[in-house]
Write a structure and sequence with these properties.
The structure is a single chain. The protein is mainly beta. The protein is about 5% helix and about 25% strand. It contains one helix and 14 strands, in the order αββββββββββββββ. Strands 7-14-9-12 form a four-stranded antiparallel beta sheet, with no helix packed on it. It has a four-stranded antiparallel beta sheet with strand order 8-13-10-11, with no helix packed on it.
Length: about 260
């Protein structure tokens, strides 16, 4: 009898070891009353900064996904990729409306060039004529050829007849003269707006030096004491000279 009870006890213990164990797990619940917003599956919705989105309201209490800094506030956080939309016909917006970034059919962003710190866009000027002035307003000049500044207006840059090379534009006018230069700083040629070149030549075997007003034989650019020694400059500035003895200096300028 005792042996039978022992066998039954062992059999019952073995059955206990192989029987499956069933446990009930209760998922945590969240309530909107505690400030959490749940989706349909009961998952807490978070803002981009990791904080829990609260139900309803606007601003910091809104349940919608939003940025972590308001317009006009100090920047914070990491940047987020943005996209645009392509419309074959651009839709106008009114003051204060929100709009999509507009793209071209190849994904390029449509932009309007504006003057710096201004509400005025750059004016598009498609004028191919000569004598274009600087103007008082910023302009975006669209032309079919290059322009050069002649000292007062913009003119077309000249080139060879084959169009392969661009050459320097020569002056349309010439001016010549002779100046008696003494041992003191003497004006040889006054400043001339639009001057391209000026060539100066000494008429006696004296040392002459060229430079700004007040030039001396030690501070100026000297020429060899040889008759016919010359100097060519590309400048519109006034030119002075001084010589070791009174000397005639001839010049020719183009402008």
């Amino acid at each position: 009898m005792a042996l039978r009870r022992f066998i039954l006890a062992v059999a019952g213990f073995a059955a206990f070891l192989v029987s499956p164990v069933v446990a009930q797990v209760t998922a945590p619940t969240y309530s909107t009353a505690t400030g959490n917003t749940l989706n349909a599956q009961g998952v807490v919705i978070l803002n981009p900064d990791g904080s829990a989105a609260t139900s309803g309201g606007t601003g910091t209490s809104a349940s919608q996904v939003q940025g972590n800094a308001a317009s006009g506030a100090a920047d914070t956080g990491n940047p987020v990729k943005v996209g645009g939309v392509y419309n074959s016909t651009l839709s106008p917006l009114t003051d204060g409306q929100r709009g999509n970034l507009m793209q071209g059919s190849r994904g390029s962003l449509n932009v309007t060039l504006m003057q710096a710190d201004s509400v005025n866009p750059l004016a598009n000027v498609g004028d191919n004529s000569d004598a274009q002035t600087t103007g008082s307003t910023a302009r975006l000049l669209t032309v079919s050829r290059n322009y050069v500044w002649n000292g007062s207006t913009w003119d077309r840059a000249p080139g060879s007849t084959a169009g392969a090379n661009v050459v320097s534009k020569g002056g349309a006018s010439l001016n010549t003269g002779q100046v008696s230069v003494t041992t003191s700083s003497t004006l040889v040629a006054a400043a001339r707006t639009g001057r391209n070149k000026i060539t100066m030549s000494v008429g006696a075997a004296n040392t002459c030096a060229f430079g700004n007003t007040g030039v001396t034989t030690t501070t100026g650019f000297p020429l060899a004491p040889t008759v016919g020694a010359s100097l060519t400059l590309d400048t519109a500035a006034a030119i002075y000279a001084v010589c070791s003895a009174t000397t005639t200096i001839s010049f020719i300028e183009q402008y």
